[in-house]
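Q: Structure tokens for this one, please.
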Amino acid sequence: MSKIAFATLGCKLNYAETSTYRRGFEAAGWEVVPWTQPADVYLVNTCAVTAVAEKKSRNLIRRAHSLSPDARILVTGCYAQLRRPELEQMPGVWRVYGADEKHKILNDNTIETSVFSAYSTGERTRSFLKVQDGCDNFCAYCTVPFARGRSRSLPICEVVRNAREIAASGVREVVLTGVNTGDFGRGTSESFLDLLKALNEVPGIDRYRISSIEPNLITEEIVDWIASGTKFQPHFHIPLQSGSDTLLKKVGRRYDTALFASRIDYIRSRMGSGVFFGIDVIVGLPGETEELFQETVAFLRDVVRPAFIHVFPYSRRPGTRAAEWPDQVPEIVKKERVDALEALCSQLHDEFVRSCKGQRAQVLWESARKDGMMGGYTGNYIRVERPWDASRVNTLEEVVL
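A: Here is the predicted structure, written as tokens:
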């Protein structure tokens, strides 16, 4: 029996794809071994969102080659698409699979498809389900359209089939993933709301979350339907990137702060103040002066007041428009701004949790055990812990926060 090991960097989409590769190799009779052990084949699913991610990808490949010099190393992911010649020259690399070749990893003779269908397994309570790939936005700082291609979607029937397989495995919560998830259905007769309604009918899945959705794609119709009593939880992950209209326009985002604020307000008006908002913010975009950064701080602190802020320092990506702009922000300034927003995040998260104290909520208990305790999340993504009880793993229980 041949041995294969997997390593994944980057987003949940990559993890869903790697999990699908793993199931395919296991079905073909391969033995999956830990990454730290010798193997016949290593598969590295890479990331290129930052220079650090690219460096980690190269280091994983070197480590695999040092563990098993005769092993064949397969490389896929965003770095594979953007830097194929560089990767092909690395010792041990046997094949590199770009964005349009992922389906060939399991079988080089398979018919080409526009979207590689994937979902994650291995966690008893939650699965990440791929519904869409690629992006047409071409924001000035971002390599994703070059790395993952143009926006395209899986047919609803295939997504539902995958959801049924997930349900059959006993998983009770599904997170919808994609590069630009809300853009689902572009170029087809199907819509994102059509997808949500179809998934809501899949038996066995109790909860859904939407991993990330652009603010301009959150329609009132979608919000109204979710709020009407569905399996979709009061938890929204929305990229803001900057709270400065000057920067939003400069980098090519398709909304301004007024539209963003109106979407947040509408969701709260329909679903209540207990909605969990996770907001993505990039600090140190080219041209971000201290004044413009403070606009972002004020917008988050005084207007949006999210439960969590995902803070990323801007990383200069070769081939993007922003990489050529002269007004780059020094790294030390980026770090100071990351620290400032992380402190604000801690404050806002604590306030959000306190605001929900005393409320009743359903918790889905997870299987991880640490120091005699187990944990789980409410529908609005508040972490709760209790003493370990094996009988409660993967069950929903009502608690008082």
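A few notes: The CA atoms of residues 197 and 225 lie 9 Å apart. The first helix runs from residue 12 to 27.
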